[in-house]
Amino acid sequence: MTNSLPSSGPVLVVDFGAQYAQLIARRVREAHIYSEIVPHSWSAAQILAKKPAAIILSGGPASVFEPGAPQLEAALLEAGVPVLGICYGFQAMARALGGDVDRGSKGEYGSTPAVVEQASGLLAGSPPDQTVWMSHGVAVTRPPAGFEVLAATGGAPVAAFQDRSRRLYGLQWHPEVRHTPLGQAALENFLYREAGLRPNWTPGSIVAEQVAAIRRQVGSAQVICGLSGGVDSSVAAALVQRAVGAQLTCVFVDHGLLREGEREQVERDFVAVTGAKLVVHDASAVFLRELAQVTDPEAKRKIIGREFIRAFETAARRVVAGGQVEFLVQGTLYPDVVESGGGDGADTIKSHHNVGGLPDDLRFELVEPLRWLFKDEVRAVGAELGLPDSMVWRQPFPGPGLGIRIVGEVTESRLATLRRADGIVREELTRAGLDREIWQCPVVLLADVRSVGVQGDGRTYGHPVVLRPVSSEDAMTADFSRLDYDLLSRIAGRITGEVPEVNRVVLDVTSKPPGTIEWE
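RESULT FIELD:
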């Protein structure tokens, strides 16, 4: 599989079980420096074998005093590699080097005032007072020998320290969260000033590296891509097209559960920009037939997944019949790799999150040009490749499509109703300039609910639709987006005026958790 990395060593984020480990890696990349996450179970020798340019020790839920708490090998701090400890990593560093950590200290949680005693090195340019985000129950009370104290808070006498001669640094607070306004500045001080790294991880460099890696991997073989029209598959396909041109054939399965204009966008915009060969397989009638009278959400998902495999297999056989196809493009992202334990495994598989369960005679080696990227980086690469904003900034859309945004049986008429309502919402959000602010806005049709209303001079019994606008960075957590009331009024007016089957529009203001983003 495509596994290309920058030629210089990465910044390694050692994950001590932090909820923010991925966020730390993302903030490093926002500074245009490549980063990776590794588990705390790795030995110092394993970590150093990756030749890291710098190391960041994450926070974590454990106390350094707990039995079985993650340990920090002193060898990691003695290798001469710049190391920054954050929260738990800060305490583990202090303890490993002989500092004092007091389990009886007053804990601090949330927004906390910090007093900067020395605005140098890690905190160069910091004002005397700043607000930081804390989450700790024990505190460092005495730094290790050779360290200077940089800052303190009410509950942490040593809230930041450094030993510049050994290039070791630590922060009790979380610089990676937006609730620490000067956090990114501290991270960049560590990366640029103290570790001496250059900001060369850019969309242009990513494209160049991946194009070269794809060419090395694929050679002169043929490649197939299951193109959904979503951001990930579109950018992955565009990268492979840039690398090998006519050796790539994209397969687009129209299952009839798409949003308004999505098939046309793929056929027109994607092909126009990339020049890719595209095979369109229309299986919408089959999907509708198989979904008839099915209302259980999980049953819908299984049917849609099964029929998608069959449809892709049919289309893939047409492509394979034209020549030897050895590679399958997959839009795996870095969070998928991290959450699956690092992504190690066989190169040749027959099951994945887009096209799973292919028969044995359709086995491919994977090409995964996005496996080291976060979602925001994928969008930046897409823009670098010239994909239109309508594709690059397309809202995430579930694989089962509108089939799981209809609460009740999926029928052709219900799809038409939801498709038009969804189209109106997307039009209005785009017109309001919110495409880059709102992560996603599912529109849900309550197909088995009838709502009494008055339209014209008569009483109606139409369907309600639910708007679910959410803001998120990674979809792991989300909050409802506070849309302007005038915008909501305009959306509701258009839907009830232009979609006769709908007479009520409601707003879902539930965060995740407890609610999920999708209803089914």
